Amino acid sequence: MRVVRHEIAHLALGNWLGNTPLWLNEGLAEVVERLRFELSSATAPEPGKDIRDVARLRRSGRLPPLRTFLAMGRADWNRIGPEIAYPYAWSMVHFLLESPQRRSLTTAYLNTIAQHRCRAFDHEAHLHRVYPGGLSAFSADWAAWLAKGRPLALRH
Question: What is the pTM of this model?
Answer without folding.
Answer: 0.88
